[in-house]
User: Fold this.
Amino acid sequence: MLEVVLYTRNDCELCHEMETLLTAELPQFDARYQRIEIDGKPELEAAYGTEVPVLFVNGRKAFKYRCMPRELRRRLRREVKG
Assistant:
C-alpha cells in the first residue's frame, strides 16, 4: 500500500489544485492518503513555510507546488513496482 501525505495550508490555491488532482488519481492505486494542514503548527510552518503544497509518497518528497496527472501516475506506479 502506498502512503501519500500532503502538507498544505488552508487558503492556498495551489494546495486546492493538488488535492483535486489527488482525489482524481488516487482511486486508481492502493493508497492511504493523509492531508496535514501546517497552519498553527510552528514546527511544520518552520519546515514548509510557503513551500506548499508538498507531497510525500512513501516517506519521500515527491512534488512541491504542482504536478501534472501524468507525473503523479508515473511516480505512484514506480513506487508500486518498488
